[in-house]
Amino acid sequence: QVDHLKENENEDKIKTVVKELVKKLKEKPSKIALCSNTICVSHGNNGNSKHSVRHYGVSMSTTGGPAGQIMVAASCLKYWEKDVADAVMSYYPKGKKYFNVTIKLPDWVRCQAFELTGSGEVKIPCRSCSNMFGLVTTATQAWPHGNCAEAESLSNLLKEKE
Asked: Which tens digits make up the pLDDT trace of 37-80?
């Protein structure tokens, strides 16, 4: 993980390192099956954002639907924090209210995604991330749930928080 190699709190440095890595990986696309397009930063700033630990995650950019579904399922079963995995596994875009374990994050939690390609601009949460994690968005696009960088970033945050 890049955040263990660099200063965790230096977001700009970490985003730059990951962006350079993605650029190098995309130079040889025939050899790359997984190459993220988005990085997400999450932390609880609860009045002291200068000293809060940042947690990072990247998007699940795969070559096709089945590969993405396998990666998300494996992450839910083995890697992601339980509440994030539960939210992703139980999310049903058409709104099955009887089976819903989505998360509502406190207002003081920051969860913000950025492009790893192009300008590196801020990406607003998709509709699926808004529904699963309570993130504020104006987006109407709902990507396949679990593919976005927000899931891994929030999982890393929640592994460290009560």
From this structure: 889 999 987 655 555 788 999 888 776 678 788 888 899 899 99
126: nearest Cα among 116, 111, 136 = 136
Q: What is the C-alpha end-to-end distance of the chain, expressed in Å? A: 23
Instruction: Name the phi and psi angles at 109, rounded to 5.
Output: -90, 125
- The answer to whether 125 and 113 have CB atoms below 8 angstroms apart is yes
Residue whose tokens read 């839910």: 76
Could you state, in order of their start, the residue ranges of all structural domains in the chain? 2-160
* Residue 143 confidence (pLDDT): 77
Q: Residue 110: which region, alpha, beta or left (left: phi > 0; alpha: psi -120 to 50)? A: beta
pLDDT reported for residue 72: 87
What are the residue ranges of helices labelled H in 34-160? 65-74, 82-90, 127-133, 149-160
Rounded distance, CA 46 to CA 162, Å? 14
CA–CA separation, 159 and 75 (whole Å): 14
Amino acid residing at 73: A
> Are the C-beta atoms of residues 136 and 130 closer than 8 Å to each other?
yes
Cβ–Cβ under 8 Å, residues 68 and 98: no
